[in-house]
Amino acid sequence: MIDRTLKQLILFGATGDLASLKLFPAIYELYSQQQLNDNFQLIGFGRTELSLDEFRRLFRKSVEDRFGASAKNLDKLLNNIYYFSGQYDSVESYEKLGNYCLEIAAGSQSEIVAYCSVPPSVFGNIVENLAETLKKSATSLKIVIEKPFGVDEKSAEDLFRIISRHFEEKDVYLLDHFLGKRPIQSILKLRMENNVINLMIKGQEIAGIKITAWEKAGVDK
């Protein structure tokens, strides 16, 4: 049986570099692989004032920069792309966002995933405002938080307390997008196919594992 429930992905930080560099191309790739259907809507949330056409052009440029002329069905996907401008710390913005989600869903309730591609300093505001507004109106609400989870141990503990006060563990996803990179994914395969490495990689023989992925762009981007 095909699931026809409307799915809405609210992307906080939709005008940031991470969204353009990684998230927009990833969403397009999922769509091109038919992992997302026409019951999917992306609502970009940002503090920057943009028209719908401006945001869709931003999304198009991101995808075409990555895939070039091979970006088929992009126009069709763009029909499911929307934008909402608001403030992360304003409950009024979230109330308007909830109304906007209902409007583009033609009045139907939806399953919502809120993706936080923003600095750790605003995670708490987003979580609390979502719980106060959209959590009450959506069929379901899940939240995805990008790394870093806080800036130190205390801020991480504070954020954990805020999240656990409003959301159950099954509705929260902590994401490090680099865990999906091909070199990381191939470690298990490399171990099993290389007898020398397989003999060496035993729990009692390893004091620690460190993986470093150098990037040209720094955290300032």
Please characterize this protein's 3D structure.
The radius of gyration is 20 Å and the shape is globular. Helix 1 links the parallel strand 1 (7-12) and strand 2. The chain has 221 residues and is α/β, with parallel strands linked by helices. The protein has helices spanning 17-32, 52-67, 74-78, 91-104, 123-132, 134-137, 153-166, 182-185, 187-193, 195-200; strands spanning 7-12, 40-46, 81-85, 111-116, 140-146, 172-175. A six-stranded parallel beta sheet has the order 3-2-1-4-5-6. The termini are far apart.
Low-confidence stretches: none
Write the element-wise H/E pattern from the N-terminal end onward: EHEHHEHEHHEHEHHH
Q: How many strands appear in the DSSP assignment?
A: 6
Q: State the shape.
A: globular
Describe the biggest sheet? 6 strands, parallel
Percent range for helical residues?
A: 40-55%
Kindly, what is the distance between the CA atoms of the first and last residues, rounded to a whole number of angstroms?
Answer: 44 Å
Strand content: 15-25%
Query: Averaging pLDDT over every residue, what do you get?
Result: 86
Strand order of the largest sheet: 3-2-1-4-5-6
**Structure classification:** alpha/beta
Cα radius of gyration in angstroms:
20 Å
Counting H and I runs of at least 4 residues, what is the number of helices?
A: 10
Give the gist of this structure.
By secondary structure, the protein is α/β, with parallel strands linked by helices.
Outline the secondary-structure elements.
Layout lengths: L6 E6 L4 H16 L7 E7 L5 H16 L6 H5 L2 E5 L5 H14 L6 E6 L6 H10 L1 H4 L2 E7 L6 H14 L5 E4 L6 H4 L1 H7 L1 H6 L21
Parallel strand pairs: 1-2, 1-4, 2-3, 4-5, 5-6
Helix pairs in contact: 1-2, 5-7
